[in-house]
Specification:
The chain is mostly helical. Helix content is about 65%, strand content about 0%. The protein has three helices and no strands. Helix 1 packs across helix 2. Belongs to the UPF0291 family.
């Protein structure tokens, strides 16, 4: 998770870029912060998706096999059975 200070700095740089432009040092800082933000977002999204269990309207577990295997490896949803 990105710290609130870094998110605030991302927003400051975005506003400054629109208003007056950024210095070369600020452009580099913005790119670095953007990469940190994206890495944090991707990690959180991956964690969220890996924890999902897909169920059809009849209540049957229809989670894709690839996801079941990841969950089994990580011990999520007690995926110890063979599918």
């Amino acid at each position: 998770m990105l710290s609130p200070d870094k998110i605030e700095r991302i927003n400051q740089l975005a506003k400054k870029k629109k208003a007056e432009g950024l210095t070369p040092a600020e452009v580099k800082e913005q790119a670095k912060l953007r990469e940190e933000y994206l890495a944090s977002f991707r990690s959180g999204m991956r964690h969220h998706i890996e924890g999902m269990k897909v169920v059809d309207p009849e209540g049957n577990d229809v989670t894709p096999d690839k996801l079941k295997e990841i969950q089994k490896q990580k011990g999520i949803h007690n995926r110890n059975d063979n599918f």
